[in-house]
Specification:
4-stranded mixed beta sheet; 190 residues; GK/Ca_channel_bsu; 5-stranded parallel beta sheet; ATP-binding; single chain; alpha/beta
């Protein structure tokens, strides 16, 4: 198999709400040539903002599940999320593909994608609480639920997990993630 035919790794960015996954991903995309991001499909109204995603109705989501239009899908926080099958096209031309995933689908993702590198982004409970309150998307009860879920452990049996602490300056977390990812990227596409 020639080097160009090897698929780039899927880099799953996971962590609790408010930990800074999107900020970390944006910074990595700016710094690492050839790195791309796979947009998620979500049953959330487009005007609610947050990450850059493709909004679909419940009916459309269900139809894509049957099609099958997804490489991976799951439910969380009362919404349905998916990674489209076209992620393979990105993997053929990128040095790596970043995707925001839920911890509960990591074993399934590893089976689906083969080369899966997991960036587990963490922060102290105090930092998480402050960030969630600042963004203003959740009420106090939802913030408490999200903080309680933040302590959920990673599934056992995962091959490659890199922990990144994002409690401090974003630049520190970005540098740590960039250094840890370099051995996994497709060098001829960087």
């Amino acid at each position: 198999m020639s080097p160009g035919s090897v698929k780039a790794p899927v880099i799953a960015v996971v962590g609790p709400s408010g930990v800074g996954k999107d900020s970390l991903m944006e910074a990595l995309l700016e710094r690492i040539p050839g790195l791309v991001r796979q947009r998620r499909i979500i049953t959330r109204a487009p005007e609610l903002g947050g990450e850059d995603y493709d909004a679909v109705t419940e009916d459309r989501f269900a139809a894509l599940c049957v099609a099958p239009g997804f490489a991976l899908h799951w439910e969380a926080h009362g919404l349905r999320y998916a990674i489209p099958r076209d992620i393979d096209e990105l993997r053929n031309r990128a040095s790596g593909v970043l995707v925001n995933l839920s911890r509960k689908v990591l074993l399934e993702a590893e089976a689906a994608f083969g080369t899966l590198v997991i960036l587990s982004v963490t922060a102290t409970p105090e930092v998480l609480a402050e960030r969630l309150m600042t963004r203003g998307r959740e009420d106090r009860a939802e913030i408490e639920r999200r903080l309680a879920r933040a302590a959920t452990p990673m599934p056992a049996g995962l091959s490659q997990v890199i922990e990144i602490d994002n409690s401090g300056q974003l630049e520190e977390a970005v540098q740590a993630a960039e250094t840890a990812l370099m051995p996994w990227l497709q060098p001829e596409r960087v």
